[in-house]
Amino acid sequence: MLRISVKDFGAIGDGQVLETAMLQRAINALAADGGELVFPAGTYLSGALRLIDNLTIRLEKGAVLQASPDIAEHFHDARCQTDWLCHYFLYGKGIKNFRLMGEGVVDGSGAAYWEKEYLCGLPLGGLPSELPIIHYNVLKPRAKRPVLLYLENCSKIVLENVVLRNAACYTVWCVGCQEVSIRAVTIRNPRHGPNTDALDIDCCQKVEIDGCDIESGDDCIALKSDYHRCGRLHPCEKIHVEKCRLSSATCAIRVGYEGDAPIRNATFERLEMVDCRHGIDILSIVPVCPLKIDRGTPVDNLKFSRITMRNVGQAFFVWAGCEAPRTGYCGHIREVEFSDMTIEAVASSFVGSEAPGAISGVRFKNVTMHVANLPEIPPTTDFTRMPSHWGDWWKSGGIRLYQVCGIKLEQCAISCDQSGFHAVEC
Q1: Hey, how many other C-beta atoms are within 10 angstroms of the C-beta on 215?
Q2: Could you give all domains of the chain from N- to C-terminal order, each with its CATH number?
Q3: Is 21 helix (H, G, I), strand (E, B) or coil?
Q4: pLDDT digits over 134-161, tens only?
Q5: 110 has pLDDT over 70
Q6: Cα dist. 389→182, 288, 322, 386, 409 in Å?
Q7: What digits encode the pLDDT tens for the residues 205-225?
Q8: Cys-Cys crosslink for 358: which of 172, 179, 314, 320, Cβ 3.0 to 4.6 Å?
Q9: Taking CA 83 as the corner, what is the angle to CA 77 and CA 88, rounded to the nearest 5 degrees?
Q10: At a CB cut-off of 8 Å and minimum separation 6, what does 326 contact?
């Protein structure tokens, strides 16, 4: 395999000079037969880089591939109807056999794309240093921000050992891809970073995520099914996640919300979730939002096992239905198992649907959960209204069930500091 260095194409690596042209020439030099492109120690400032078939990018120890803080330097996807999520730093469409490896770093220059003010109006640094995990505080984003790594309709993708940090919005977004392996990757996005999802797996098949260490300002791992973006009615399926540490200002794991295509056959095991607003969030919904979601995702056959949660706001939030005033929901959530878990949560969990039968076959087995008291939030009594798809902070026992069919709790121990507590509320 041909192995070349970016230094051979004039790259300096001083972090000051924009080196997009040199780096792209180095990539293109491997277009004929493929090969490995090496980044020696140094900081390489670059705009968008288009990836090719049979390419390995190796970031050696001390190497930083830095995204330009100027949005004009990044690829703009003209198919997008808005400026939201249509700029990319590293991107590949329809490529195969791409590998990103090594002990180096890809840095998204996220702070350049956020205001220095929280959504609540306070300036950066103006919040108390210690806030309960249920509080969500991110900076105001600018309209145009680059996705750090965008891969669409690609196959045989490997991300291994590298550090990905400071994404401006999504970090890794795989859309319509097959045979994706993400191993021992470290992701570090500030908790105040808006929409800084770590791994978005969208309409993909045969995905392995193993041994990753993730801290993010939004979802750590999200399974989605927005088939409109990849142009094909692809399910998101055959996903396996294990041995990861997850910490997030929102969800450790989110399944659903964005898309109408099926999400099915996914397993999550041996995970540690620490300091997350939500542990596991599963949504099949027709929301009020600019996304094209008309029917709701059919979600089938999810297994979560051997998971610990510490200082999570809400361990479980599962919802199927519409967000008022939307109508036309046709999705479902079926056959979901949660087993062998130890949980320390702040608020009650919720499993519910707009209409009876939309959620069925949910099983909790050998789950030990303690729910702390929330004296500032009164117990919830009105479950006829549609809960927020971001997750309401229910204070009504350990797990509140609403219009769910065929749910089982086996060998579960659920305790709470709340007076008059009930482990399960129906």
Answers
A1: 21
A2: 83-425 (2.160.20.10)
A3: helix
A4: 888 899 999 899 999 999 999 999 999 9
A5: yes
A6: 28, 10, 9, 9, 24
A7: 999 999 999 999 999 999 999
A8: 320
A9: 45
A10: 286, 287, 288
Tokens of 86: 């249509």
Q: For residues 209 and 239, what is the distance between their CA atoms, to the nearest angstrom?
A: 8
Q: What is the pTM of this model?
A: 0.96
Q: What is the mean pLDDT of the chain?
A: 91
The DSSP element (H or E) to which 37 belongs, if any, is strand 35-39
Asked if 133 contacts 346 with a C-beta cutoff of 8 angstroms, the reply is yes
Name 332's Cβ contacts closer than 8 Å, sequence gap at least 6: 284, 296, 298, 299, 300, 320, 357, 358, 359, 360
How many whole angstroms separate alpha carbon 33 and alpha carbon 90? 21
If we measure between CA atoms, which residue out of 161, 168, 240, 158 comes closest to residue 197?
168
Task: Confirm if 86 and 76 have CB atoms less than 8 A apart.
Answer: yes
Phi, psi values for residue 204, rounded to 5°: -110, 160
Taking only the tens place, the pLDDT of each residue in 52-85 is 999 999 999 999 999 999 999 999 998 886 778 9
Q: Are 238 and 203 in contact (CB under 8 A)?
A: no
- 390 contact partners, CB below 8 Å, separation of at least 6: none
Say which residues have a Cβ less than 8 Å from residue 115's Cβ, sequence separation at least 6: 139, 140, 141, 142
Q: From residue 350, how far is each of 40, 326, 393, 420 by CA, in Å?
A: 50, 21, 9, 18
Q: Tell me how far the alpha carbon of residue 399 is from its chain's centroid.
A: 24
Q: CB under 8 Å to 119, separation ≥6 — which residues?
A: 137, 138, 139, 140, 194
Alpha-carbon gap, residue 359 to 320, rounded angstroms: 7
Structure tokens at 341: 């878990």
Q: Is there a cis peptide before residue 325, judged by omega within 30 degrees of 0?
A: yes
21 neighbors 47 (Cβ within 8 angstroms): no
- Residue 204 CA: distances (Å) to CA of 81, 103, 151, 178, 263: 23, 27, 11, 6, 9
Tokens 């097959």 found at: 178
* Banded model confidence at residue 379, pLDDT cuts 50, 70, 90: low
